[in-house]
Design brief:
The chain is 39% helix and 15% strand. With 211 residues, it is α/β, with parallel strands linked by helices. A hairpin with a 2-residue loop joins strand 3 and strand 4. 28% of the residues are buried.
């Protein structure tokens, strides 16, 4: 709390099974660039107590996997931040709409985020929804039947996203599906179809080797 940024109202955290894996999570990239501290929790009980305690000394706990985090209000302190200019809003809006149409019911929404730096995409949960690990625990315990659709967040300054927006190309659909599967893998969700994922990935590898 003593090292919080000006205007920071929440204590940010991220839960997972392994500390080193958590440290490399793409969702941390934007926080690192801005020098905003994030608590990393690796004990299974952490998924429960943050949903019971809610706050500490008047500061609410907030998972960085939430889709409503506004990092723009904090200045960038790490100049590793993307050097490229971001895509204009109307361009990203059109891309988000197209990606949603392609991914359909598998995503709740596609939207722009500033949580990312070197990564193109990540998955997020809407405000009020369960975090990834807690939801998986309830599924394992047969308390709920299936996972809810997540929000796919895109980095408007990433070369892949910029290329998709500016030049759809014949392989655009496959790229979008690969990005979605990549985001799922990073959150421990697994790919929707291993066969389709392998086919798409193999196709791009073959083309790169031929080139």
């Amino acid at each position: 709390i003593s090292r919080m940024k000006e205007g920071q109202k929440e204590i940010y955290y991220l839960t997972g099974d392994d500390l080193e894996v958590l440290r490399s999570n793409p969702q941390l990239e934007g926080f690192k660039q801005r020098g905003v501290e994030v608590l990393l929790f690796t004990d299974h009980v952490d998924d429960f107590w943050v949903n019971v305690v809610h706050e500490y000394k008047g500061k609410k706990f907030k998972s960085i996997t939430r889709s409503d985090i506004e990092l723009d209000k904090f200045p960038v302190t790490n100049e590793e931040k993307k050097a490229e200019d971001e895509l204009p809003k109307d361009t990203t809006d059109a891309l988000c709409k197209r990606m949603k149409e392609i991914l359909g019911e598998h995503v709740r929404e596609v939207r722009v985020t500033h949580k990312l730096g070197a990564s193109a995409v990540c998955l997020a949960t809407q405000e009020g929804a369960m975090d990834f690990r807690f939801e998986r625990f309830l599924i394992e315990q047969k308390q709920i039947a299936s996972a809810s659709a997540k929000i796919l967040e895109i980095n408007p300054a990433h070369p892949i996203i910029k290329s998709l927006a500016n030049n759809a190309g014949a392989n655009a659909d496959d790229i979008i599906w690969l990005l979605f599967d990549q985001a799922r893998i990073l959150e421990g969700e697994g790919v929707l179809s291993p066969a389709d994922f392998t086919r798409r990935l193999q196709g791009f590898v073959e083309k790169s080797l031929v080139a």
